[in-house]
Amino acid sequence: MRTRELAVSCFVAAFVTLKLIEGFGALEAWPLTHVPMFAVRRPPEELPVRRTIEARRAGRWFELRPWQLGLNRAELAGRLLRDPDPGVGCGEVVREFNTRRPAWLRIEEAYVRALTVARPGSGARDVEHRFPCPLDVTRR
Fold it and tell me: Measured between alpha carbons, how far apart are the two ends of the chain, in Å?
């Protein structure tokens, strides 16, 4: 048996073995990681909520992205977007952001925009809520 045939045979055997282990072991996460293979089923009454941070600098409103705060999406979600009142966490994150910036690049005002997305075909409309972010500690 040539080297190429041996390598292909080993790969096929390993692949089939892994698939058998997945099937008989009922694995719920990918091997060597803890990432779930399947999404959790959400009941129809649970609507998705999209949360973003809107900020004002020099009189202009814009969406403050996680990378601008030095975070990734998961870190931002973990720090503030899962709370029932995300305004307090938003204030902490934006205050931290402001300490690292010169005065002319600091955020003057911010809020968390929570958009509850209606299910398609339900006839309902999207609902938006705003949570102000306290940027000075005395306003908490």
Answer: 74
Q: Has this prediction a pTM greater than 0.85?
A: no
Task: Name the E strands within the chain.
Answer: 49-57, 60-64, 109-116, 127-132
- Six-digit token string for 61: 């409103």
Read off the pLDDT of residues 22-67 as tens digits, 9 standing for 90 and up: 777 766 666 666 667 666 777 877 888 888 899 999 999 999 999 9
Tokens 């911010």 label which residue?
A: 110
Alpha-carbon gap, residue 119 to 75, rounded angstroms: 27
Judged on CB neighbours under 10 Å (0-12, 13-18, 19+), 128 is exposed
Those residues whose C-beta lies under 8 Å from the C-beta of residue 132, and which sit 6 or more positions away, are 87, 110, 111
Alpha helices, DSSP H, located in 26-131: 73-76, 87-99
Q: From CA 42, how far away is CA 89, in angstroms rounded?
A: 26
Structural domain boundaries in the chain: 1-41, 49-139
